[in-house]
Amino acid sequence: MDIENENEELHNELTPEDHQPQEVITKVTGMYKDWFLDYASYVILERAVPAIEDGLKPVQRRILHSMKDLDDGRYNKVANIVGHTMQYHPHGDASIADAMVQIGQRDLLIDMQGNWGNILTGDRAAASRYIEARLSKFALDVVYNPKVTDWQLSYDGRKKEPINLPVKFPLLLAQGAEGIAVGLSTKILPHNFIELIEASIKHLQGKRFTILPDFPTAGIADFTNYNDGNRGGKVRVRAKISQLDKNTLVINEIPFSTTTSSLIDSILKANEKGKIKIKKIEDNTAAEVEILVHLPGGISPDKTIDALYAFTNCESSISPLGCVIEENSRPNFIGVSEMLRRSTDHTVELLKKELEIQLNELQEQWHFASLERIFIENRIYREIEEEETWEGVIQAIDKGLQPYIKHLKRAVTEEDIVRLTEIRIKRISKFDIDKAQQKIEALEEDIAQVKHHLEHLVEYAISYFKRLKDTYGKGKERKTEIRIFDDIEATKVVIRNTKLYVNREEGFVGTSLRKDEYVTDCSDIDDIICFMADGKMMITKVDAKTFVGKDIIHVAVFKKKDKRTIYNMIYQDGRGGASYVKRFAVTGVTRDKEYDLTQGKKSSKVTYFTANPNGEAEVITIFLRQAGSVKKLKFDLDFSDLLIKGRGVKGNIVTKYNIKKIELKEQGVSTLKPRKIWFDDTVRRLNVDGRGELLGEFKGEDRLLIINQKGIVKTIIPEITVHFDSDMVVLEKWKPMKPISAIYWDGEKERYYVKRFLVENSDREETIISDHQKSFLEIVSTDHRPVAEIVYNKLRGKDQKPNDEISLEDFISVKGIKAQGNQLTTEKVRQINLLESLPYEEPEELPVEEIEVIEEQAVTPDSKNSTSGNDISLNKDVEDDGSGEQASLF
C-alpha cells in the first residue's frame, strides 16, 4: 500500500554487510485526522442532522422525493417505496423503512394504511410489505414545486434528486428531530401545528412570539427552563394521573419519549424496591392510554401520585439541543424562535419565486394568445401560401405581424412564429374572436393579481399561512398541557419500606436491630432524629446500624423545616444544678453532627421530654426532694405558658432544688397558630408559602370543601400533597353549617332543579346531580343567600318573557344531600346566571390564643451564660433565643 508523503518515515541505517530488509515506521496521525474528519463530516451532513431550509434529513428528503415520483393518488406498498428510495439513498432498506415509519407516525406528511405501530405502546409497525402509504394533501400542498427546486445528481449519477425540498412551512419544528452524529447531536422537540402558523404570522406582522413544544403523547409539561430549545435548557414532562376511586389511580396520558410498556416497567421496579406500594397494574391502552394502578388499602392516592412522579418514568426530563445544517455545509446551534423566523422568511422567498414564475408563465400565455389572435383575425396565415421555403414562411409571417404588435410586452421571436405555424386549420376555422378576447382579459386580470401579490408579499404570505391553518388545522389543537411543576421531595412521598429499631441503652439505631425495640416504619432515604439522656441531639441517615449516643430517650423520622413538631424538655444543668424548661422546634441541622441542648456542663441530664407533632402543651406536676428550707415540694407547670424558641435557647429556671419526679397531670392541646393555606392555581397545589389564593386559616380538625363539574362533593384534610383535578369548580374552607346551593339539569326529566343542602358525611364523596348520563351541574354557590337570574327562550309569535331573579334561600329550604330538589321552572330556559348574593353577616369567630414558633437566631457567648430570672417565671425575663449552628441538613 502506498503511504502519503505527509506521513513521516523513519529509516534505519544499515551497513553494507547487513542483508536484513529496511524497517519503516509510519505514523498514522495525518491519515487519522483527514479520514476521521471526512467520516465525521459525512455523518453530520448526510445522516444525523436536519437542514434548516426544509427541516429534513437526507433519508427523509429522499423518501419524500421517491413518494412524489411514484404518486398517482393511490396507495403504494411501503416496500415498493423503500426500493425506489434506494436509487437515491446508498444504505440498506431497513434504515429507509424505519425512517419512513417515523415520518408516518408524525401524522403530517404521509397518509398511512395498515399497522404503522403505536407511539403510545411502543409496538412496532408491520413489515413494509404489508403496509401502504401515499402523500398527504398537506404534503402535496406545501412540500413540492419542481420549478423552484434545486437539483443534484444522485450518488451513482443516474438520477437527479433535490438538494432541498421547497417546504413552505416550519416542518422541522412541527415534526421535531433527533440525531446523534460524530462529536455533536441534535434534539429538536415537536411543536404545535396551529401555534407554529400563528407564530409565523406574528413574525410577518413584526410582533413578538413564543413557541413551546407540543408532544403527540400529550401529558403535562413544565417549560420554565426551555431556554428557547437551546443547549442547557430542560423540559420536565409528566404523565396525567388522576384518582378513579380511593384505591385506584388512572394514567390517561404519558410523557414524551416514554411508552406504556416502559412506564409500567418503571412502576413495577419502584414497587419492587419499596419506593411505592401497589397491588396490581392493568394496561387497557388501545387508541388512547389507560393504565389502572390499583393500590392496597390504607395507601394514600395523593401521596402515591407524587411518589410515581418522584420514582418512576411518570416524570422525566428532556434536554433540547437545537442543531441544524445551514446551506448544506456546516452545523449551527440556534434556538427554536430563530428556526421559525428563518423558516418563515424562507417560505416568503419561495412564495416570491413561485409568484415570479407564475407571472412569467401568465405573461407568456398572454403574449402568445395576443399573437394568435393577431395571426388569425388579420388572416396573416394567407401570406405564406406563395412561399416555397421555410425561411420565406417565417419572414412572411414576421412581416405580416409587424403592423399589429406594438402593444406587445416583448419582441416576437422566431420560436413564437414557429408556434403560430403549428396551429391547426380546424382551430383557425372555428376561431371565436370574442372568446379569444375574454381569454386575454382573464389573463390580464390574473397578471394584475399576481403583480399585486408581489407588491404586497408579506400580506400574501400571511394569507397563505391563514389558509394552511383553516384547511389543515382541524384536529391539530394542542395536546400537551402547559403547567409549572412543584418540586416533590422524595423523602415525603417514599413508601416506608423498612422498619426502624433502637437499642436505647447502648445507643444504636438501625434497620438491622430486629431483636431490639421497634420504633416506626421508615424508608431507606429517611433521616432520623435522636435525643439522648445527657441532652445531646443528632440527626443521621437511616442505615443498618448507627451509633448515636448512649441512653436514647427519643427517636423518630425527621422532617426537614418542620415547625409544627414541638419538643417540651426539662433538664438539670450539671450535677446538683438548677433545672431549666424549654420548648423548641428543630427545623434544620447538619447531618451526623452532635448538638448539645443543655448549657454544656458535665453531668447535665434530661429529666422530662416529650415530642408533640402539633405543638401540644401538656400540664405536668413536679415533685421536689425534701431538702433544707424548701416548703413547697409539689407544684404544676403548664407548657402553654412558655414561648416556643430555637433549640439552642438556655430556657427558663423551673427550680434551683433537686427534682424527685415529674408526673403528667393533663394532656396538652395544640398551642400553635392555625396554619394559613394558599392554593396556587399555576401548579394546582396547596402551599403555606403565600403563593396563590388564600383559602383561610386551618386548625387540626378543619377541612377543605371540593366540588367538581361532575357534581361530586367531598371534604378533605388540607395536606400539601393533595392533587386537584382540572374540573374543580369550588375549593374553599369547609364550614359544616353553611348550606350549599346548586342548580342542575336532570337529563331524564329534562328540567332544571334547585337544591340546598349540607355535607352530611365529611369522609364520603357524594353526587349532587341525578345519575342520568345527560344530567349536568349548571350552577353551584356556597354563599349564604345566592341569587340566580333565569333568561327564557323567546317563543315564536310571542313577546320575550322578562328575566326572573330568584333568591335560592327563599325558593327552597335546606334538605338532605340526596334530595332531588324543587323544579326551577316549566318554561324553556336559554341561560341561567348567578347574580350578586344578598347581604349576610357571618358571626365572628372567637380568637384563638396563639403561640407562634420564633425563628432561630445565632447564640452569643454572653447570652449563653446569662442568668434567666426567677423560678417558675415562665413568660417574664425569657432567655434570648439561640440556636447554635444553623446549617442546612442537605
From TrEMBL:
Residues 8-21 have a biased composition (Basic and acidic residues). Belongs to the type II topoisomerase GyrA/ParC subunit family. Residues 345-372, 426-460 form a coiled coil. It comes from Aquimarina rubra. Keywords: Coiled coil, DNA-binding, Isomerase, Topoisomerase. This is DNA gyrase/topoisomerase IV subunit A. Residues 860-873 have a biased composition (Polar residues). Residues 1-21, 854-890 are annotated as: Disordered. Residues 49-498 form the Topo IIA-type catalytic domain. It holds the Pfam family DNA_topoisoIV. The active site is at Y130. It catalyses: ATP-dependent breakage, passage and rejoining of double-stranded DNA.
